[in-house]
Every structure is written in C-alpha cells, then in structure tokens.
Amino acid sequence: MKKGIIFLAAIGLTLYGASPLLAGGAVNKNNLSAEYVRTMNRAAATDSADIVAYNPAGVTAFANGLYTNLSFQYIDKNYDNTKGGTTYNSDEPSIIPEFYAVYKKDKWAGFFGFNVPVGGGKVEYPNGNATTIRIQENFFGTGPMKLEAESYGLGYTFGGAYQINNMFAVSLGARYIDSRKWLSGTAPALGATPAGAGNATAEYDADATGWGAIVGVDIVVNKDFTIGLKYETKTNLKYTYTHASGTNAKGTTVLNALGVTNGGEAHEDLPALFSMGISYRITPAIRIEPTFTYYFQQNADLGGIATSSKDLEDRIGDGYDIGVAVEYAFTETLKASLGFLWTNTGVDANDMVPEAPELDARSICAGFAWKAKPNLELNVGIGKVIYLSETTSPTATYKNAEYSKSVTYMGFGVQYKFF
User: Fold this and answer.
1) 282 exposure class (CB count in 10 Å sphere: 0-12, 13-18, 19+)
2) Are 409 and 74 in contact (CB under 8 A)?
3) CA–CA dist 360, 400 (Å, integer)
4) Quick one: 165 exposed, middle or buried, by C-beta within 10 A (0-12, 13-18, 19+)?
5) CB 316 within 8 Å of CB 26
6) Which of 91, 106, 351, 397 has an alpha carbon 20 to 30 Å from 225's alpha carbon atom?
7) Can you tell me the mean pLDDT for 366-370?
8) Cβ burial 358-374 (10 Å sphere, 16+ → b, else e)
C-alpha cells in the first residue's frame, strides 16, 4: 500500500499541466481564438469579435451591428519524459472550441464569450512516465503502471463597453468558470505477504466553479495607433473531489490517506493577469502588434492536494508572455500574418509536473484572414511551439528526469455580421 500512496502523492498536481499550453503561465491559457492562432498577439486588436477575450473595450471600434465569431483549434501535442535512456510518451491531441458575440450600437456595446481559459486537454502515458519510474527507484518490484489525466475549465464571459470620447473606451465584464478535472492511475501495491499482492487503482473527479471580473481600456491615439489594456481578477476555484468508479479498495485507502475524500475540497485558483498591447499601422498595408501579458501566480491559492511542505504558489514565480505580430494586407479583403511569442511560465524544472511539464517556450505562427463576403470573414492559422527542454537535479523528487514537449497547432474560425 505504501507504494500506491507514493504513486498518488507524486501525481497529485498532474491536472495543472494536462492542457495544451500555447501561451500563459502555470495555469492560465491564452490561446482562445483562431485569430490568436494566426497572430499570437491580440491585446490591442480591434478587427474581430474574439477581442472579447483580449481587448474587450476595443469592441466600441466596430460598426453598428451584431457579430458572431466561432472557431476551433486542433492541437497535436507530444509530451516526453526521459529516464535512464528510456523515453515515455503521451501523444493525445486536443480539439478546443470558442464562441464570441458582440452587439454594437453607437457608443455602447454588449458582448458574450465562451472559451477554455483553464486546462483544455488530456494526457495519457500507457507505459508509465517519470512518476512511475520514481516508484521503481524507491521500492522493489515492478508491475503494470498507467496514468491518464484530463482538465478543462469552461469560461462564460458577459459584459459591456462604452466609448467615452474619440480617444478612450472602457469595458467591464464578469466571467463564470465551470471547471472539471479527472485522474485515473494504476500502480503496484504489494502487501506484506503474497496474499496481499495486487494493484492500487484510483480514479477521481473534481469540480469547481467561480466568478471573476475583467476590466478593459482601449486608447485610440490616432487612426493608426491603438493601445489596449486589460486586467482579469483572480478567480477563486475550490474543487470538490469525488472518488470515481475506477477506484478499488486499495485505491480508496490511498485517496483517503491523501485527504482526497468524497466531498473533500481544495483551492486551485485561476491567477489574475494583466495584458497590454500596441497596434500600429506602419503603412496602409502593414500593421504590427507587440504585446505583453503578466500572470500573478504567487497571489493565487494553488495549494490543491500537493504533499510538498510548500504550496505550488510558494514554489514558482509569476509568469509572462511577450511577443509581436506583423500583418500584411494584400487587398481590402485578404491579409496575412506572422507572429512570435516568448513565454516564461515561472516554474523551475524541479517543481514541474512530469505528466505535462510547464516548460518555457518560443512560439511561431502564420495565417490569413479572408473577407469572403462583406459580412463574412474566415481565419486560418498554423504554428509551432518550441519548448526549452529541462532536466531535474540529482536531488529533486524526480531526479535526473529530462522533460520535453512538442506542439503543432491549427485554428479555423468564421465571423459573420448579421446587420
């Protein structure tokens, strides 16, 4: 049983990383539209309804009417753990939907957004990984080991914006998050005698809901120069854990020993963030958009069910993204874009989750937007995230483990203006 306890203690934070990180900190996700997939920088944009998620005050720049924006992302992700010359892999893809709507009337605008700002994916290590290898390093005996985890938090944003004058616009919104996490694991749990031999299988669900506020400011310096500012408050998420049907008697004992009981609760908040962007049109055809996003991870309660002497927020720093997009308009109806993003998650290798390590990244992307009809626009993007591999120290919990990731992503979106 001790072996099973070590197994589940080691994966207690798995679900933090069970998501396709294209940008963001240890928890926040910023890949929230097809327009983002083709630019990776949207903090000062004013051209599509997806800016509900990036520059909400900028919707006041729209012409009067009702806009809807629907997009999907396909993310092909490979996560590797290498120990002793052997690589353990998870290659589960993710498909993520988003939807936005904006109604603009003179100086006022109302908006709605649906996206996945927390989690958004699944990992599956059918032959084990650094976590299960840790078991074998500390205890005798081997056996079938498998680990699966999934996490997603659905975000629903409601709000409005007002144009104060030709230069300033402001917005205020509220976002409701409904989050679910799931974990299933199997590990040897040899008893004191052969009669007690067997596997510990554990499975649990965790659910949490919470509200947060989003404040935005859009500053139009002139017709070619716009500044976008946004602040999202921390969203308190207190998860309630439930033992699922895949948990056997030994797994139940393990979960209870960790405090993961039916009805048990633990905080894993969504940190606050601040973003700033500049949209500048160099020529009638060329526009650049540098952006900066900062994630206040140390001010959030990320304790979860960690068994470390320190909670997660005490073991990591804040995170940030910094990048730039370049957009070129071939015609009034067709424009192409290139984007680059530098991501620092604020997590040291020794504190990363092996199942989906929070590696720093350098991302590149390209795509185009085509106005097929006066009221219809299509967006397509593709890109690659280049993660910086990390190796843990010889004294770390997962000693001498090398973490690497590979993500290729695509996005497709359609926007329609009804009137």
Assistant:
1) exposed
2) yes
3) 19
4) exposed
5) yes
6) 106
7) 98
8) bbbbebebbbbbeeeee
- Looking at domain 2-417, its CATH class is mainly beta
Residue owning tokens 């927020």: 313
Q: Where are the domains of the chain?
A: 2-417
Residue 333's alpha-carbon distances to 46, 69, 370, 379, in angstroms, are 16, 17, 6, 12
User: How far is 80 from 146, CA to CA, in rounded Å?
Assistant: 15
- Maximum average pLDDT range among 22-31, 353-362, 402-411: 402-411
Per-residue pLDDT reduced to its tens digit, 96-111: 999 999 999 999 999 9
- Closest to 371 measured CA to CA, from 379, 363, 383: 379
In total, the chain counts a number of residues equal to 419
Strand ranges (DSSP E) for 15-143?
65-83, 86-90, 94-105, 108-125
Dist. CA 124–CA 147, nearest whole Å: 6
Q: Is the entire prediction scored with pTM above 0.85?
A: yes
